[in-house]
């Protein structure tokens, strides 16, 4: 929600009630902070969807594990036990997925394997089968059940969902980078309630420092928590980008999440890249994952449930979610060392007491408030896209903040231009969206400057005057950075234009509206990009 505060182009976004990514980190990260926010990029129209194999090659992974799936249906266990029988869904997981300690932590009676309920739908692009990425050519998929009234793994009288750890590359070898990939499908009519969790990656030891529920106690002056894209909770950890992602029900959606450790430990240079159906949804490269060199990425944390830890999160009906093509890719083993730098630990493995290691739990969950990834009822209060056309309809910038396939994006761009180009400059600058754009739930708000149209597509709940003022902020920021911006600047400085927009809007939410701060951040990023690194940064002795 954008709120108009004054006539001086100064806006303020209301408290963000929804994000997309959740990182649960432990107290070994005390004292670290995340202070940069200009690296977030969301589903750029010009990008081509990438397959799993392409991502595997692009990020330099060296090993891949594809979770086996049975060739015939397997029913769920009749009882909730940590040691289910081999003829049950949980038993299949236990004996084929390299689970930690051969245990299903919770929800053994909620795991089954069934025929694919949506065989005619497929993420784009579909995961390719190769030596790096082998997916089972069978129709069975994993079904996780959530009985009526269930929430949080061990809370309440009814247990729903499941939680277990898979370590296909061993328990003793942490890795410098890791990618988790899977397809997820929510049935038509799925009731999202208040939120829930999806699988992610963990590091450290899952049964020390509370494992899944590890957290960082947060100081009131934490720069990380002051970031508009971050929500902090002293009990449950850090939330980044809740509610910015929409998962359509009744179809498969592919998730690929890439994480790379910050190195040396304590530096703010950890990487997080998330792809939805092969398109980059978000990218961050200043994350302080760890302050000790004794921790690396370990394996798959398959945790999914409703909640929240109160009955208000409980599902009102028996329901299910489906998973398939679960894969884990790793880079080289991480070099471990005491403290935040120095000599590698003996043998490159964890030394000392396991109890001294803090667990890191990194999870791509879909919203704590907004649910397993944004829902139909939670996709409100956001900017859906930012577009710039010239007077002939040629797009000079296209930015979509929801996962939309390329063909639909192109159709939307054409329709929006047809809508606004026919309107004289003397009429109102906002109009209701067409059926294709979302009908009455959507507004198209624009300004016409000489040869360029600046267009924001937003939810009906946004303030039209506030968005008009926000467009002015964006234009004036461009003008200051390019000294009287023109169409050629948008063509020949494509990256810089996107960087400026990313300072103003991230994930469809207003991030910054002070023009001076926007320009300063972009200029500082430009200086850092030009600064030599490595050998080039060392002075010559001659």
From TrEMBL:
Residues 382-527 form the AP complex mu/sigma subunit domain. It comes from the Eukaryota. Residues 137-211, 212-326 form the Polysaccharide lyase domain. Its main location: membrane. Keywords: Cytoplasmic vesicle, Golgi apparatus, Membrane, Protein transport, Signal, Transmembrane, Transmembrane helix, Transport. One of its GO terms (biological process) is Golgi to vacuole transport. It is found in: Cytoplasmic vesicle membrane; Golgi apparatus. InterPro entries: AP_complex_ssu (IPR016635), AP_mu_sigma_su (IPR022775), APS3 (IPR027155), Clathrin_sm-chain_CS (IPR000804), Longin-like_dom_sf (IPR011012), Polysacc_lyase_14 (IPR048958). Gene3D superfamilies: 2.60.120.200, 3.30.450.60. Residues 1-35 form the signal peptide. Pfam families: Clat_adaptor_s, Polysacc_lyase_14. The chain crosses the membrane at residues 359-375. One of its GO terms (cellular component) is cytoplasmic vesicle membrane. It is a peripheral membrane protein. Belongs to the adaptor complexes small subunit family. This is AP complex mu/sigma subunit domain-containing protein. It comes from Linnemannia hyalina.
């Amino acid at each position: 929600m954008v709120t108009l505060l004054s006539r001086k182009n100064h806006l303020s976004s209301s408290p963000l009630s929804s994000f997309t990514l959740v990182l649960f980190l432990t107290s070994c990260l005390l004292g670290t902070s995340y202070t940069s926010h200009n690296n977030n990029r969301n589903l750029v129209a010009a990008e081509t969807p990438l397959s799993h194999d392409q991502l595997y090659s692009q990020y330099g992974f060296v090993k891949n594990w594809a979770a086996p799936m049975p060739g015939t249906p397997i029913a769920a266990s009749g009882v909730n036990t940590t040691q289910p029988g081999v003829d049950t869904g949980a038993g299949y997981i236990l004996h084929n997925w390299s689970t930690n300690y051969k245990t299903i932590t919770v929800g053994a009676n909620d795991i089954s394997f069934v025929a694919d309920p949506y065989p005619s739908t497929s993420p784009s692009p579909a995961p390719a089968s190769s030596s790096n990425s082998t997916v089972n050519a069978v129709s069975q998929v994993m079904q996780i059940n959530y009985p009526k009234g269930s929430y949080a793994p061990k809370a309440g009288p009814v247990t729903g969902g499941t939680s277990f750890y898979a370590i296909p590359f061993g328990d003793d070898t942490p890795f410098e980078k890791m990618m988790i990939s899977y397809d997820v499908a929510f049935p038509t009519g799925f009731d999202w309630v208040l939120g829930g969790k999806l699988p992610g990656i963990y590091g450290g030891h899952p049964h020390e420092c509370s494992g899944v529920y590890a957290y960082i106690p947060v100081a009131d002056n934490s720069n990380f928590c002051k970031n508009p894209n971050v929500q902090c909770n002293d009990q449950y950890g850090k939330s980044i980008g809740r509610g910015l992602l929409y998962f359509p029900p009744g179809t498969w959606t592919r998730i690929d999440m890439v994480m790379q450790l910050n190195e040396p430990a304590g530096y703010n240079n950890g990487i997080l890249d998330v792809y939805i159906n092969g398109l980059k949804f978000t990218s961050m490269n200043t994350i302080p994952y760890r302050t000790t060199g004794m921790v690396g990425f370990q394996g798959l944390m398959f945790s999914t449930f409703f909640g929240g830890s109160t009955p208000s999160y409980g599902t009102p009906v028996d329901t299910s979610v489906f998973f398939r093509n679960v894969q884990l890719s790793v880079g080289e083993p991480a070099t471990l060392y005491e403290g935040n730098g120095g000599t590698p630990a003996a043998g490159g493995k964890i030394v000392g007491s396991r109890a001294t290691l803090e667990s890191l739990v990194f999870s791509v969950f879909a919203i704590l408030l907004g649910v397993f990834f944004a829902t139909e009822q939670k996709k409100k209060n956001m900017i859906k896209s930012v577009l710039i056309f010239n007077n002939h309809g040629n797009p000079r910038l296209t930015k979509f903040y929801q996962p939309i396939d390329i063909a639909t994006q192109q159709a939307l761009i054409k329709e929006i231009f047809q809508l606004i180009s026919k309107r004289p400059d003397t009429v109102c600058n906002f109009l209701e969206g067409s059926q294709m754009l979302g009908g009455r739930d959507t507004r198209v708000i624009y300004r016409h400057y000489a040869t360029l149209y600046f267009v924001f597509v937003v939810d009906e709940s946004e303030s039209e005057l506030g968005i008009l003022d926000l467009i002015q902020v964006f234009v004036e920021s461009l003008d200051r950075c390019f000294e009287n911006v023109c169409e050629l600047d948008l063509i020949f400085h494509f990256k810089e234009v996107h960087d400026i927009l990313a300072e103003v809007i991230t994930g469809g939410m207003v991030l910054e509206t002070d023009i001076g701060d926007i320009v300063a951040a972009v200029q500082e990023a430009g200086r850092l990009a030009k600064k030599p690194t490595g050998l080039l940064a060392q002075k010559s002795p001659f």
